[in-house]
């Protein structure tokens, strides 16, 4: 047993003093091949400082050995020394037998810098030079996955699986394909792969994607089961709560849904979407005061979220709190940031506050959005009748009756106008 092997054995048994002693002796006495193998092993287990020392020693002896430059570049990237890494990599020329490895390391460097397009070009160049290398195929698939180019990633993962490689670098490729299909919106394809995975040994993300896929496919019972299993494993997985609640809502289990949203808010109190969904659940449970509390919480977190603003405004109008609604929407009016539904709500509020001028303006503004909505046409038509504008009332009610011809009361009112 040489000193390199003794050093690794000591490290395996957590005998650091023995490792240090044999490491020093290896540097002095072992062959260059043994030292290179030792450096590779040390780097793989996180002893990059010791690996770096060996690589530097060997590079001084073999200055034209490009593989050593790529190895040192990898360590420089890990240490955040990007310029030093680029310096090593720039020394590896395209005619070098180690050029492909340098491209792979370069791709890794640019990916850590967020330059995914440059990283992709490096990998594509490597793929042209060595089209059958599994490591390049896998690296390309992973980069496409990171870039959310799932349609490009999936064929590469499938290629590796067809070669009898279901797992690469501790990554389950079946799982990756399932998640990629799910993220691409191809849920029927996704579930076929995700069902093959033993959820006990899958990542929380995969458990979530599987349950989410069942939700998208409308299999709400399986979705609920999946989210529940994920919750048992990690109740701090904040993303699961909105969708778990949604699955329960589809099953008309509103009491449970409300509890799930409430639990989610204890995990992530700044999630405006959860406040909104909790408000919706409270409405379905006929708890308007609780709904108001939740909508206002969401509104304070995200005042520009018009979905929440519309829901809260709807609640105020339904409660006939017209002054509160006008006051609530005043900032949106000031900023000219009004959803069409808010225009309608303002028109309704001003109507019942007997401010016919403002009501008329907002009904007129809203009409372009709701000209094909019978309930709007009827409401606006009756408002103009109250305001004494029979011409506008007749025009709108005529449009309404055309869409709802079986409303005898409104049809008779139109006849009155004609006579």
TrEMBL record:
One of its GO terms (cellular component) is transcription factor TFIIIC complex. Transmembrane segments: none annotated. Gene3D superfamilies: Tetratricopeptide repeat domain. GO terms for biological process: transcription by RNA polymerase III. This is Tetratricopeptide repeat protein. The lineage of its organism: Bacteria, Bacillati, Bacillota, Bacilli, Lactobacillales.
């Amino acid at each position: 047993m040489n000193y390199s092997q003794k050093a690794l054995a000591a490290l395996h048994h957590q005998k650091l003093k023995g490792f240090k002693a044999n490491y020093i002796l290896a540097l002095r006495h072992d062959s260059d091949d043994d030292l290179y193998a030792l450096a590779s092993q040390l780097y793989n287990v996180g002893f990059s400082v010791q690996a770096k020392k060996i690589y530097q020693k060997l590079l001084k002896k073999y200055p034209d050995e490009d593989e050593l430059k790529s190895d040192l570049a990898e360590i420089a990237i890990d240490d955040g020394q990007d310029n030093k890494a680029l310096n090593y990599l720039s020394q590896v020329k395209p005619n070098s037998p180690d050029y492909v490895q340098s491209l792979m390391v370069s791709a890794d460097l640019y990916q850590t810098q967020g330059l995914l397009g440059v990283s992709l070009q490096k990998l594509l160049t490597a793929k042209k030079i060595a089209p059958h290398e599994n490591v390049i195929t896998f690296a390309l698939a992973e980069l496409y996955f990171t870039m959310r180019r799932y349609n490009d990633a999936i064929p590469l993962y499938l290629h590796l699986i067809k070669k009898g490689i279901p797992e690469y670098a501790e990554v389950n490729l079946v799982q990756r394909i399932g998640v990629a299909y799910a993220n691409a919106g191809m849920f029927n394809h996704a579930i076929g792969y995700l069902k093959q995975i033993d959820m006990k040994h899958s990542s929380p993300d995969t458990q979530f994607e599987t349950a989410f896929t069942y939700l998208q496919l409308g299999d709400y019972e399986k979705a609920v089961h999946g989210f529940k299993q994920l919750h048992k494993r990690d109740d701090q997985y904040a993303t699961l709560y909105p969708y778990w609640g949604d699955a329960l809502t589809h099953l008309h289990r509103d009491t449970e849904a409300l509890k799930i949203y409430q639990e989610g808010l204890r995990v992530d109190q700044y999630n405006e979407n959860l406040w909104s969904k909790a408000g919706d659940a409270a409405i379905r449970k006929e708890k308007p005061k609780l709904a108001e509390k939740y909508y206002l919480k969401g509104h304070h977190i995200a005042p520009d979220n018009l979905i929440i603003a519309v829901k809260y405004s709807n609640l105020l109008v339904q409660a006939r709190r017209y002054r509160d609604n006008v006051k609530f929407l005043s900032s949106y009016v000031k900023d000219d940031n009004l959803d069409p539904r808010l225009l309608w709500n303002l028109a309704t509020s001003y109507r019942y506050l007997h401010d016919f001028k403002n009501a008329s303006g907002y009904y007129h503004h809203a009409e372009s959005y709701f000209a094909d909505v019978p309930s709007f046409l009827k409401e606006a038509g009756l408002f103009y009748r109250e305001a004494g504008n029979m011409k506008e009332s007749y025009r709108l009610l005529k449009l309404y009756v055309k869409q709802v011809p079986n409303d005898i009361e409104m049809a008779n009112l139109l006849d009155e106008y004609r006579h």
